[in-house]
Amino acid sequence: MASLEEAVDKAWRLLKKSKYAVAFTGSGISAEAGIPTFRGPDGLWKKYRPEELATPEAFARDPVRVWKWYAWRIGLVLNAEPTISHRVLASLEEMGLLKTVVTQNVDGLHQRAGSRNVIELHGSILRARCTVCGYKWSIERKPRDDELPLKCSRCGGLARPDVVWFGEPLPRGALEAAYREFSRADLVIVVGTSGVVEPAGSLPLITVRRGGSLINVNLEENRYSSIAAVNYYGRSTVFFSRLHERIRESVS
Ligand code: APR
């Protein structure tokens, strides 16, 4: 495992040398913004059963219960601020050193940090979708309990969070766009993901199979550790704060 200095130095060298770098992020990049991850010691799936809250069957069984859980998460997301990790990825895009962020997250923090080219593989918790007419609209505040389940403002039909639940296909456009990005990339920087959920988790492997390099920033070992050119095991804000300084040193 590389030390912080070694990891940042190597990552910066790979970024400068890369022709097409792509970021792949999971809930770990938003953990320090106060948004819980899914697995690990204090992960959401330790407290809640995903099949009771994040499946179409769960929603059909009890839409209010599912909406209450999402309303709670919407509240967390709206109160959260992007971290330095989100912001450094946005500035790397600004510098032309990062082409796209492909995220499994539904919290919109990459966009709020200034990233413009973001592919949301699992949808957005800040969007609702009508289960009848398909109409979509953004959610700007935490829904009140008495408003649940949300109804479509167009047809009055039952609305659902516009996210991907277990057992559901990913939005076609997003998955195809992500395949294109990883097929084109010569560098992928993976941040804050266990990588266990498919098909998202396998996407970075496309880049590595084509001879690209992988930078892995995560609290602990994950499925990418054995194929990474550099592994940094620690909080992503520590890595990205140091990378931010490194970028400033090299452009000043
Ligand atoms: N800095 C860096 N990494 C972190 C931090 C942090 N501060 N905190 C946690 N992590 C790491 C954990 O070690 C873990 O490996 O982030 C990873 C989060 O993994 P998961 O909780 O499995 O989240 P994720 O990989 O995003 O899950 C993928 O699963 O439940 C579904 O749809 C959901 O998009 C989600 C998908």
Task: Produce the secondary structure layout.
Layout: H1 4-17, E1 21-25, H2 44-47, H3 50-53, H4 56-61, H5 63-79, H6 84-94, E2 100-103, H7 109-113, E3 118-120, E4 123-130, E5 136-138, E6 159-163, H8 172-184, E7 187-191, H9 203-209, E8 213-218, E9 230-233, H10 236-251
Parallel strand pairs: 1-2, 1-7, 2-3, 7-8, 8-9
Antiparallel strand pairs: 4-5, 4-6
Helix pairs in contact: 1-10, 8-9
The chain binds adenosine-5-diphosphoribose.
The site of adenosine-5-diphosphoribose has 23 residues, from loops.
Describe the structure.
This protein has ten helices and nine strands. The chain folds into two domains: 1-35 and 80-122 and 171-252, TPP-binding domain (Rossmann fold, 3-Layer(aba) Sandwich), CATH 3.40.50.1220; 46-79 and 124-163, 2-Layer Sandwich (SIR2/SIRT2 'Small Domain'). A six-stranded parallel β-sheet has the order 3-2-1-7-8-9, with helices on both faces. Strands 5-4-6 form a three-stranded antiparallel β-sheet, covered by helices on one side. The protein has 252 residues and is of the alpha/beta class. It has helices at residues 4-17, 44-47, 50-53, 56-61, 63-79, 84-94, 109-113, 172-184, 203-209, 236-251, and strands at 21-25, 100-103, 118-120, 123-130, 136-138, 159-163, 187-191, 213-218, 230-233. The mean pLDDT is 96. Helix 9 links the parallel strand 7 and strand 8 (213-218). The protein starts with a helix and ends with a helix. It is 38% helix and 17% strand. Adenosine-5-diphosphoribose binds at residues 26-28, 31-32, 37-40, 43, 104, 122, 192-194, 196-197, 218-220, 222, 235-236. Adenosine-5-diphosphoribose (APR) binds at residues 26-28, 31-32, 37-40, 43, 104, 122, 192-194, 196-197, 218-220, 222, 235-236.
